[in-house]
Amino acid sequence: EEEEEEDDDDDIDEDEEDMDFKMVFVVNKTLELKAGSMSLHVGKATAGLFKKINSQPQSVHVGPDELSMWGDLGEKMIILSAESDQHMKDLELMARNLRLPCQMIDLKDDHMKKAVLGIFGEEREVNKVTGRLKVVS
Asked: SS3 for 82?
């Protein structure tokens, strides 16, 4: 019985150590952004996320400490696609409901059009929002 209790303690420690973070960028595929434009919007989303995260107090769920851990663990990033402006808004709402830092970038000449949504957080939490989206090829 004692051995089983020790195993349970080990599992808890492993879960804490397995905390991986990632930054995801969701691109609105209906805009058919060219590579240069997509890069610009992803860059803006990245800068916005960094500002937002670094302005958070250390006590928040996803703040500067987690951003630093993400950097130490290889800065995992992925670019995915969404189906429409409404899909982008729905994803942003889901991320906010999970208290994940997110940054929506609108098209410069049409603020009604959602170009890129950046989301950062613990991988399993981010996957609750973006897990079914396809990778941009």
From this structure: strand
